[in-house]
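Session log. Operator J.P. requested a structure for one protein chain; no other inputs attached. Running the standard single-chain path with C-alpha cell output.
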Amino acid sequence: MKIALMDSGIGLLAAAAAVRRLRPDADLVLSSDPDGMPWGPRTSEDVTAHALDVARAAAAHRPDALIVACNTASVHALPALRAELEPTLPVIGTVPAIKPSVAGGGPVAIWATPATTGSPYQRGLIREFAGSVAVTEVPCPGLADAVQNADEAAIDLAIAAAAARTPRDVRAVVLGCTHYELVAERIRAAVRQPGLPPVALHGSAGAVAAQALRRIGAEPAPSAEPSAALAVILSGRPADLPEAALAYAEGRLLGAVSPAR
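Structure written below.
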C-alpha cells in the first residue's frame, strides 16, 4: 500500500503521521511546494496550477490514494485534481472540522489563515453545519509561516495574538489550517481559561487518513510491520525531510524511517 500526501509545505505532516499510526506498513509519498509558498495569497487559478504540479509529482510514484492535506488547495483545486486524477487515483480533500466541533454545543472558534477567514467557503460551512451554535472566525496571520519555518518565537507570538481574539467562553477550536495541527497543544494551552476544562481541538488529520483507507478498501492495522519507504518531493525535486519538519513530533515519527527516492 502506498499513500501520497500533498500540501504547500509541512502541514501535511499531521495527516501523514495519522496514516502512519493507522497503517504503519503503508509506504508514504510527501509532495510539497516550498518554492511556491505561500499559496493562500495566490489567485484560485494560481493555486490550482501549483496544486496540479505538486499532485502530478506525487502521482508519478503510483500511489493508491492522494490526500490533499491543505485547506487552501482543497478549497480552490479539488475539482481540478479529481478531474485529472480520478478514478485511477482517489483524491481525498481536507475540510475544516466544523461539524464535529459543534456537537458539544459551543461556543466554537475557527482558527484559520487570513485568506480563509471570512471567505465564502468557510461561511458556507458555518451555515451548513453550525446551526444555532455561536461561531467566531479567528484570523491567524503569520502562524502558518511560523510553523513552516519552526520559528519558535514567531509561533508563540502568532498563537498569543490569535488567543487574544478568541472569546473566553469558547469550548472548542477548529484548526482550519493543517499547519496548526503541528502546534495543537500550544494552541490548547493558550486558549485555556483558569477554572474551566481544556478546550477541545478539532483538526482534520485523523479523518482524512481514515477516509483515504476507506477509499481504497483498506482497514486500519496499527500493529502491522512498519514500512521503511518514505519519498519526499520538494517542488518536484526528490529530497529529504526538511529540517524544520523534525522540530515536530509528527516529523520525527516519519523521519525515523529511511528515505526512499
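Operator note: The beta strands are 2-6, 27-32, 65-68, 91-92, 108-112, 135-139, 172-175, 200-202, 230-234, 237-239.
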